[in-house]
Amino acid sequence: MKKLLTATLISVFLVSCVQAQFLRQQPSRGPSSGGLTLAKNGQTTYSIVLPEEATAVEQTAAKELKEHLDQVTGASFAVVKESEATADQPQILIGNTAKLKTLLPRLDLQKVPYDGIVIKTVGRDLVLTGHEKRGALYAVFTFLENPVGVRWWTSTESFIPKKPTLVIPGQNTEYAPKLIYREAHYQDTYNPVYPARMRCNGAITPVAEEYGSHHMFAGSFVHSFFPLIPPEKYFAEHPEWFSEIDGVRKHERAQLCLTNDAMREELTKNALEVLRKNPQGTFLSISQNDWYGYCECEKCKAVVAEEGGAQSGLMLRFVNRVAEDVEKEFPNVLVETLAYQYTRKPPKITKPRDNVVIRLCSIECSFVQPLARGTQNKDFRDDIEGWSKIAKRLFVWDYVTNFNGYMLPHPNIRVLAPNIRFFVDNHTIGLFEQGDHHCSAGDFAQMRQWVIAHLLWDQRLNERQLMNEFLIGYYGPEIAKIYTEYWDLLCNRAEKSGVFLRCFMRNTTSWLDLDTLEKATALMNRALAIAEKSNDPVLLKRVQKARIPIDLVWLTSYETMRQVAKLEGKPFNGPADPKEACEKFFALCDSFGVSYYQEPQSPNEYQAYKDAFFARYANVSEGPAFCDSLPEGTWLSAEEFQMNMRRPGEHSMLVDDPAAGNKRAMRMPGDHDNKATAYYFDKTLELLKPVKPGSKTPKFHLYAAVRADAKATEGIGLNVGLFDEFQGKPIMSAEIPVSEIAGKDYKWIDLGILDLNTNRNFWFAPPKRPADEVEAVYIDRVVVVREE
After folding, report:
1. DSSP state, 33?
2. Of the ranges 165-174, 618-627, 672-681, which is most confident?
């Protein structure tokens, strides 16, 4: 059971019911009519007063207040117990002091909602208190920010104003956050103090007890089915506990059979054991594995049919039964489950129990349009609004970075605040904002985490003002103005492009055009020039880090942008020597300690990423001979490194190959038939001129240079196809005989005249044959010719 701080601790799941009541409360004595002079000319008459039996959090609150007020004023604020305080001396009272009952007799701290704060001036005294777990500490941090003016930009960078005479206006704040779980997941998440200062309390934050600790998931944070019912322990004796798929009970990439009562009883027993071993847990995850593979047995299908075809109904019936048993022993624990992938649609009949929280994930969404409006996110909007009608409380796992390119520009700045408000408006009590926590030079990560953390605490704040405040405070007003223009430029371009901005984007070519890239680069150059002239090494490092994303665009999109410039008849203003640009870029990344460029898949992946860039520019391919006779501007060539890989290092990988045009190729082992490599058509397609002018409907001829290490002389050597991502359906597919591509030399295969557009990708898949038949298939490059 959750460890109670006192017998009067309010249950977490009742918070939303008392928020409104708390915000309406008014103590009998309001703020003083005038301000308080806490220090004058570096001297103070104030003492910081603690209760006689102060909690560890109250003691930390007093320590933080003293340290910061001392730095701000130059005075020395004494911290004393209430019995040691002088009666006629003005006081700053921290937490649940005895004097509080005299100053604010109508304030009942036991009724203050979870994480609520109270900041009051009464006569000459200042009260900083709140909910007994973290309220006093959060009141101190809130007070230090406003009105004192302290700013904690990051875990290591702050602004402490110098005010030897510190006068504050009268205070009369009573506030409780609507989100009881708040997590801005960046590198500073793992600092033991910074999240508390930002008033974040998520499960991943290592906030110590004296700083108020944090929410904890008992057991798995998510995807808990197999941790609770591990197949290696149970499948052999109880295959019926696992999914029936195509008539066979399976555990590989499968789920559990949710209508099996014996399995549910065992899972419940195991979950209760987890809770007993983790008495501080506030959440328990009972949630599906991170893949499909749901059970198709007759009993499970019957329940799904009753629920209008919604798999979530089957899931929720199961979770409700577990939650009912959990509540008997752990009444303050919230049982969380996912509405994710195949369970995202709300059920027709079943509703969550009061101790069940539904967690939705925005992984399928576009992050260039706000969730509350815009056609791109209608399906997710409908689902979350549907859940909010039947569930008292939701939890959202939101994605606020590009997991395929932490350091690439990700123009989601304008949707961050509207999306948080949308979640809160739909009964969300917990929000996990997953940012680029692995990368030390992510796209304006410092600004993002600061703005997001403040919005998690108070959705009424103006996001534009928050962003401006950070930029001015962190970079200075002159550079802040440039960065504001930079972000407006990128966001305007992304919105105009119509891109579906996913949280998994390999590059920026689907929305960032050459003109915008050059304007953005010019802005970054201006900011760098100012920083270089400032003789401020700290500012210079900050500005160098901020320009990393735009420098990376030039490297990832170098060939595309060069082709665009050529097709548009414009000068190319990218790096004159891409190899030299790579060396400078990665030297800068190394200086910031970068070790990840995307969501990690292996410890050596970042090194391989660097090596691939250097290899990319070590050799330059000549144009294919069959294009020599074509008019200029009618064709384009895409190298292997411009293609997307699925499961890099497993299903596809970049390798050295002397036979390839640039000595590098995409290799796919022949023992699987997954769509391992894909080329996404970008805006350059629309710039191609027709070989035969006059056609109103563009026709594109597609070719690919491929080869196979194969001993087989018959059968399939390669699978290819065209897929429309907007329509979600295949357009064509074909099998290439191994006889046409076997050998050490690349063969140009004619893939036909196709209807291509920027919503479509052309994919390659090996033939799934034994290694002694087809060891591997290699892709050198793809060529597109506009015939008409």
Report:
1. S
2. 165-174
CA-nearest of 497, 184, 551 to 366 is 497
Helices (H) and strands (E) in the chain, counts: 21, 30
Q: Tell me, what amino acid is at 761?
A: N
Q: Distance between CA 49 and CA 68 in Å, rounded?
A: 16
Distances in whole angstroms, Cα of residue 624 to Cα of each of 34, 660, 747, 781, 787: 80, 12, 11, 10, 16
Helix (H, G, I), strand (E, B) or coil at 48: strand
Please name the amino acid found at residue 372.
Answer: A
Per DSSP, the three-state class of 290 is coil
Residue with tokens 């809160």: 424
List, in order, residues 6 or more apart from 604 with CB less than 8 Å away: none
What sign has the CA pseudo-torsion 77, 79, 80, 81? positive
Say how many CA atoms lie within 13 Å of 458 toward its Cβ: 14
Residue bearing tokens 């005038």:
34
pLDDT in tens, 697-756: 888 999 999 999 999 999 999 999 999 988 889 999 999 999 999 999 999 999 999 999
Crossing angle (nearest 10°) for helices 558-568 and 514-533: 120
The dihedrals phi and psi of 707, each to the nearest 5 degrees, come to: -155, 170
DSSP one-letter string for 330-395 = -TTPEEEEEE-GGG-SPPSS----TTEEEEEE-TTS-SSS-TTS-GGGHHHHHHHHHHHHH-S-EE
User: Hey, what's the torsion of the CAs at 179, 180, 186, 187, to 10 degrees?
Assistant: 160
Cα separation, 181 vs 478, in Å, equals: 36
The radius of gyration of the chain from alpha carbons, rounded to an integer in Å, stands at: 30
Rounded-to-integer distance, Cα 23 and Cα 17, Å? 12
Residue 12 pLDDT more than 70? no
Can you read off the two tokens belonging to residue 461? 């704040």
Element containing residue 521 per DSSP (H, E): helix 514-533
Q: Phi and psi for 338 in degrees, rounded to 5?
A: -95, 140
> Under a CB-based contact definition with an 8 Å cutoff, are residues 403 and 502 in contact?
no
Give one DSSP letter per residue of 601-662, joined into a string.
Answer: SSTTHHHHHHHHHHHHTTS-PPPPGGGTTSPTTSEEEEEGGGSEESSBTTTBEEEE-TTSTT
List alpha helices for 229-354, DSSP H: 231-234, 261-277, 298-306, 311-329
Q: What is the pLDDT of residues 115-169, one digit of tens each?
A: 999 999 999 999 999 999 999 999 999 999 999 999 999 999 999 999 999 999 9
In terms of Cα–Cα distance, which of 167, 425, 218 is closest to 336?
218
Tokens of 655: 């390798």
Element (H, E) at 709: strand 700-710
When pLDDT is cut at 50, 70 and 90, the band that residue 213 belongs to is very high
Looking at the DSSP assignment, which residues form a beta bridge with residue 703? 750, 783
271 vs 283: CA distance, rounded Å: 11
Would you put residue 450 in left (φ > 0), alpha (ψ -120 to 50) or beta? Answer: alpha
Residue type, 313: G
Whether the bond between 169 and the residue before it is cis, its omega within 30 degrees of 0, is no
Give the model's pLDDT for residue 725: 84
Give the helix/strand (H/E) hosting 717: strand 716-724
The total of other beta-carbon atoms located within 10 Å of residue 694's CB is 6
Measured distance CA(220)–CA(223) in Å, rounded: 7
Greatest distance between any 2 Cα atoms in the chain: 99
Give yes or no for a contact between 705 and 779, defined as CB atoms under 8 angstroms apart: yes
Give the integer Cα–Cα distance in Å for 500 and 506: 13
Q: In this predicted model, what pLDDT tens digit does every residue of 436-493 receive, in sequence order?
A: 999 999 999 999 999 999 999 999 999 999 999 999 999 999 999 999 999 999 999 9
Helix axes 311-329, 298-306, angle to 10 degrees: 100
Per-residue tokens: 265: 């009883």
What is the DSSP secondary-structure string of 560-582?
HHHHHHHHHT----S-S-HHHHH
Asked if residue 447 lies in contact with residue 470, where contact means CB atoms within 8 angstroms, the answer is yes
The SS3 of residue 481 is helix
